[in-house]
Amino acid sequence: MRIASIAFGLALAVAGPAFAGDPVIFAAASMKTALDEISADFTAETGTKPAISYAGSGALAKQIIAAAPADMFISAAEDWMDKVDQAGLLTPGSRADMLGNTLVLVATKDEPVDLTTLPAKLGPKDHLAMAMVDSVPAGQYGKAALSHMGLWDKLEPSVAQADNVRATLALVATGEAPYGIVYKTDAVAEPKVHVVATFPADSHPAITYPVALIKDGPAPAEAKAFYDYLKTPKAVAILEAQGFEVLTK
To answer: Any residues with CB less than 8 A from the CB of 161 and at least 6 apart, and which?
Structure first.
């Protein structure tokens, strides 16, 4: 089942108008809270305002491959960055594993959950909110974890798929779904939800966020400046405060 949060999805996916000299950044939806703060600091210090589009990594990768103007891509999974790389669109030497994250189960009630009992906790009309399991990394990691634990077949009929991980988070925060699978960083960003379980690291592929510059982007010099700014102590502190593991400093 797919539940589309139309207004929320559009708010994430569409950046403000980019002016000459403003780098165009495509970033995984789970980056929004941290990257908005970093971008504001960067603008205050340099006068350059990144135009950031947030969405599921798969949707962003497909847009870049289809020639959408972009200077930088931050994906929540290696495979979608691989596809952009295979299309020959990455600036040589710019790709780096930037961040790590943790997969968690969230709910509005602060009551710890034994993951093995999750199927029994869902009523006949309840949904488990997840990002798209075939194209959004959070959904792909979630399906892998549930499959590893022998829970996917039991839970699949109850899964409500959203366009990206922040839309998944919104389904739980608004009470449309009692539980959702998101990243730890999303839970940090939403005060209405609580982490009620953490998926074992060995239940899914490692959650790694690669970053790279895109060839022939509209503002390459400004994009490189923002790329470098992401490694500064100030930016690293923001990322860590949001729950990310920073791999490049």
So the answer is: 1, 2, 3, 130, 131, 132, 133, 139
**Residue 243, amino acid:** G
DSSP letter string over 67-87?
Answer: T---SEEE-SSHHHHHHHHHT
- Strand pairing partners for 21? none
Task: Look up the CATH architecture of domain 103-203.
Answer: 3-Layer(aba) Sandwich (3.40)
Binding-site annotation, residues for molybdate: 30, 57, 138, 165, 183
Binding-site residues sit at 30, 57, 138, 165, 183
The domain locations on the chain are 6-100+207-246, 103-203
pLDDT one-digit tens code per residue, 13-51: 445 555 668 999 999 999 999 999 999 999 999 999 999
Query: Which CATH topology does 6-100+207-246 take?
Result: D-Maltodextrin-Binding Protein; domain 2 (3.40.190)
